[in-house]
Amino acid sequence: MKITAAEFIISAVQPHQFPEDALPEIALAGRSNVGKSSLINKMINRKNLARTSSQPGKTQQLNYYRINNEFYFVDFPGYGYAKVSKEERRKWGVMIESFLKTREPLQLVLQIVDIRHAPSTDDQMMYGWLKHYGLPVCIVATKADKIPRSKWDRHVKVVKETLEADRSDPFVLFSSDTGMGKDELWGQLLQKIRG
Ligand code: GDP
Q1: Residue 121 lies in a domain
Q2: Residue 71: pLDDT band with limits 50, 70, 90
Q3: To test the ligand 1 pocket, which listed residue (8, 31, 33) has its Cβ within 8 A of the most ligand atoms?
Q4: Mapping DSSP to helix (H, G, I), strand (E, B) and coil, where does residue 131 land?
Q5: How far is the centre of ligand 1, averaged over its atoms, from the C-alpha of 35 (Å)?
Q6: Least buried of 8, 36, 71, 107, by fewest C-beta within 10 Å?
Q7: Which atom belonging to ligand 1 lies closest to the Cα atom of 175?
Q8: CATH number, domain at 148?
Q9: Is 1 inside a domain boundary?
Q10: Which atom of ligand 1 is least distant from the CA of 30?
Q11: Sorting pLDDT into bands at 50, 70 and 90, what band is 17?
Q12: Which residues surround ligand 1 with Cβ inside 6 Å?
């Protein structure tokens, strides 16, 4: 995929701020620090468009990035950040759930996990919501470069089992460091963006 334009559009805190041009949207969900911003940057060959490790306490913002005037990456606020209050967590849940339930341009959700660790209860809950709302999901296990190749299979199995992942969900092993999985993930995205 040749990237000709990639722009940060808005950190939306209210639905009325969401873009209205109906371009397809690809959302990214995952724990804080899992590597969502790095994944976006890697996919579009930019060092710093998505701000890595930006403001981890900001639980209310959906960050919109418009790519090639063709689709949006929508970066969900990372969850599982220790310093977030119960009330913030609740608000996060309300916002994400209502987005998942009602957002028509949403074509695919990338559920991002760290290949090194079993998914958390927050990851399980997120995946459960995606299934509940019948949304297409692609599971992306990132930071693959951080464990030896000989251990990949075992870790992939743990991720799938812990999420109780549907066999039909695509699964991409990824690394923002090496670019592993990038072409495969573009294949998944383009299927949804271009149909
Ligand atoms: P976010 O909070 O989900 O947006 O996570 P970031 O993209 O900011 O990444 C968190 C940290 O993990 C940063 O220090 C990144 O450099 C690092 N990181 C992210 N993806 C990878 C990866 O695939 N491999 C390695 N080795 N480090 C990564």
Answers
A1: yes
A2: very high
A3: 33
A4: helix
A5: 4
A6: 8
A7: 23
A8: 3.40.50.300
A9: no
A10: 3
A11: very high
A12: 30, 32-38, 52-53, 78, 142-143, 145-146, 175-177
The pTM of this model reads 0.96
Ligand 1 centroid to Cα of residue 64, in Å, is 19
Within-domain flag for 94: yes
Domain hosting residue 185, numbered range: 6-194
Nearest Cα residue to atom 2 of ligand 1: 33
CA of 139 relative to ligand 1 center, distance in Å: 17
Q: Which atom of ligand 1 is nearest to the CA of 50?
A: 4
Cα separation, 98 vs 121, in Å, equals 20
Residue 159's nearest CA partner among 139, 174, 175, 176 is 139
Identity at 148, one-letter amino acid code: P
ipTM for this prediction: 0.99
Number of folded domains in the chain? 1
Strands 6-12 and 62-67: antiparallel
- Looking at the domain assignment, is residue 55 inside a domain? yes
Give the closest residue (by CA) to ligand 1 atom 9.
35
Q: Which amino acid is at 98?
A: S
> pLDDT (tens digit, 9 = 90+) per residue, 121-178?
999 999 999 999 999 999 999 999 999 999 999 999 999 999 999 999 999 999 999 9
